[in-house]
Amino acid sequence: WISDINQELLTSGAVILPGNKDRGGRSVLQVCTRVQVWASEACSANTLTCLLRYYHSTLRKEMRDQGMAVVIDSREQQPVPALFSSLFEFQTLEPNALYSVLFVVDKDGSAKLDRDLNVQNETFSSLKALLKHIDQTQLTRDLGGTFYYNHEHWISFRQKIEPFASSCCAAIRFLQESR
C-alpha cells in the first residue's frame, strides 16, 4: 500500500513511475539524482527497494513480465550507492523486474552499475541519444520530452483508489463466502 512507503522519499519525486513506455512497450521508471532527498535518511537501500517493489506491484501483470526500463538522470549529481544496492536487491527479490538501466550523464560524466544486474545498461551524455530507447513523446519534460506527468496527482489518485479497491475485494470475498 502507498501508506506503507516512506512518504518523504515518495513525495520527493526522486523516483517516479509516470506511465510512459520505452520503444519496446516497457514501463519506464525515472530516477532523478538532483533531488535533495538523496542526502536524507529516507534514502536507504531498504526504503528505496520498498518503493521500487511498490511501483512494480502497481503495474499490470503483462507489464511486470516485460521488466522495467530504468532511466537514471545523473546530470549534475552522481547516484548514491544506496540506489545501486536497491536496484540489485529489487532484481534479486523480483527476478526480471528490470529490463534495462539507462544513465543520462553530463557531457564529461560517466556512470555505471557497481554490480552486475544482468540487465542491459547504457550511458548517454545527451538526451538526444536517449531517443534511441524512448520516443520523445514518452519522455517527461525533465528529460526533454512532451509526456505530461504530475507526481502529486498520481499520489493523490493512489491514496484514493487503494482503499476503494480494498473495499471492492472485501465485498467480493463476502459475496463468495455467502453463497
Please provide a written account of the structure:
This is Pleckstrin homology domain containing, family G (With RhoGef domain) member 4B. InterPro entries: Rho_GEF_signaling-related (IPR052231). It comes from Nothobranchius kadleci. There is one protein chain. This protein is of the alpha/beta class. It has a single domain, classed as CRAL-TRIO lipid binding domain (Phosphatidylinositol Transfer Protein Sec14p). It is 39% helix and 14% strand. The protein has six helices and five strands; from the N terminus they run αββααβαββαα. The chain has a five-stranded mixed sheet.
User: CATH class, anyone?
Assistant: Alpha Beta
Name the overall outline. Answer: globular
Tell me how many strands there are: 5
| Low-pLDDT segments, ≥5 res | none
CATH hierarchy: architecture: 3-Layer(aba) Sandwich
**What spatial order of strands do you see in the largest sheet?**
1-2-3-4-5
The CATH topology is Phosphatidylinositol Transfer Protein Sec14p
β-strand percent reads 5-15%
Largest sheet: 5 strands, mixed
